[in-house]
Backbone:
C-alpha cells in the first residue's frame, strides 16, 4: 500500500489530481499524475485514486488497471 500512514487527500484536491499543472505543493509542476493519466489512456489503461484501509492502517493508493488482452501498439490520438 502506498502512503500507509498518510492522511487522506482533501476532497477539494482529489477532484483535480489528474489535471495538468494542478499541484498542492509550491515546488511541483503539477504534471506527474497528468502525464501518468495520459500514458495510461493512450495504452488502454485506467489510473485512479482511492482511500484504502487494510487491517488497522489507512492510506492513499494510486492504482493502474490494464486489460491484459489490449493491444500494446495503439496509434496516438491527434
Residues:
Amino acid at each position: 500500500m502506498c502512503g500507509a500512514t498518510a492522511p487522506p487527500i482533501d476532497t477539494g484536491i482529489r477532484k483535480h489530481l489528474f489535471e495538468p499543472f494542478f499541484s498542492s505543493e509550491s515546488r511541483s509542476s503539477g504534471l506527474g499524475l497528468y502525464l501518468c493519466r495520459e500514458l495510461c489512456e493512450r495504452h488502454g489503461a485506467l489510473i485512479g485514486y482511492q482511500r484504502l484501509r487494510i487491517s488497522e492502517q489507512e492510506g492513499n493508493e494510486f492504482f493502474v488497471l490494464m486489460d491484459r488482452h489490449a493491444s500494446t501498439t495503439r496509434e496516438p490520438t491527434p
Observations:
- The longest helix spans residues 32-42.
- The mean pLDDT is 83.
- Residues 11-60 form one domain.
- Helices lie at 11-14, 32-42.
